[in-house]
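Flagellar hook-basal body complex protein FliE (Deferribacter desulfuricans), 100 aa
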Amino acid sequence: MSGINKVNFLLPNKLEPDKKTESKESKNVDFSELLKNAIKDVNNAQLQADEAVKKVLSGETKDIHETMIALQKADVSLKLMLEVRNKLIEAYQEIMRTQV
């Protein structure tokens, strides 16, 4: 029984302090900055997809596979952003309907 405790002492315990420090750092992120960064990421995905389509249409590249991946990433990220927006608007409307 004492041998098992020595093995457990060596493996998982070294990783736990790092996870705790990361969670403390992530709590200090401002929501508006998080939202702005998400919008920038969606915009960048849209721009990359546009560039990939332009390259295919102009004949610079024939890599349809990468173009389709860029288009799908842009599409999924935009749909996710719209869902987040809808949830935020729904939450705002729910708060406004609350009687004080």
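The helical segments are 2-10, 16-26, 31-58, 64-97. Residues 31-98 form one domain. ok done for today
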